[in-house]
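Sequence in, structure out.
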Amino acid sequence: MHRRQIRSCSVVAFPKLYFFAGSRYWRYDVSADAVDPGWPKEIDVEWRRMPDRVGDTVNFGNGKAYFFLGREYRRFDLALDRVDVGPLGTAKFWPGVPDLEIDAAVRVGNGDFCFFHGKTCSRFSAKENHTLDGYPRRIADDWPGMPDAPVDAAVNYDNGSIYFFVADRRYTRFDLAANRVAQPFESIAANWHGLPDGRVDGVVEWSDADLRAACAPIYDPSFWNDSGRGIRVDNNCYNYACNRVLPTGFANPGRGGFGHAILIETCAQLDAGLRVDGLVRTDPDHPDCSGCRHQIMMVKGYREDYHFYRRDRDGMWSHKVGTTRRRISTTADEPSPIRGLRTALSTPSSAAPTASTAALCG
């Protein structure tokens, strides 16, 4: 109950928390005080270029989050929605941090971060790009009230509290202003509704800006053309348009909502698959993709099939044809950005001069 009392505020700086355990992760809604419907999900499916297991994570607040596992780290770019750096050695690129396995990491404030390794910790200044003097120190000495034991995960709630999660499936709250543990250790599963009764490997806070960062996809051909990880071969135009990567098999309409591929032989079956996947139709001349959605154009009759395009953040349209690297783009003429693509598809040089189109938000 201590946690709920602290969280009873009208404005939440970080409305979502992501918990990682084993190969899965859970998205926790702070206002609802529960795991969001549809979770857990697989880490390596949803977090691009991430392994199937991660350690603790820290949000730097600059569009980057850092995932630590063992003695290595990976940097996750929120706008690109993928890992853009790593794996790299933590000690080599975080000056002063010991060459030890990092168990947990957390924002402390004023540009400082704390790394936990075994029973000791190191405070790191992002401004100075080095650990603070006097570190490493024992956790029990640096964080009054904490036991002389390792920390599994930690998260800054941005309300003056840091939550620590430890190996015996318990957690506690640390009051930064009072500089002490503010509540007894309690069961994680009993108080964080929807989380499993098990160990937490990592947890990170996500702001509204963080959630919006990847809403409109960025044109990122190096990621989609990656043959080494099978991304180019295993993902088709629908994956690309929806900005979702699957490790095996094309994401035809309906697979996301039903959990498996469905037979599509009619327009009605196609439309049903799109709806269950969460895509909604919009006015092609006045598209309204409010919320965390981006514009998608479905083309019926493309090479005697159907095909999908997406509008990237730069206003250009792009697509991916099956297993290939191909891409087409067109400027967005006013007043409707969709009209630019419709005009391009109706030209004599188009691959589908007689194609019909449907505007979607996904």
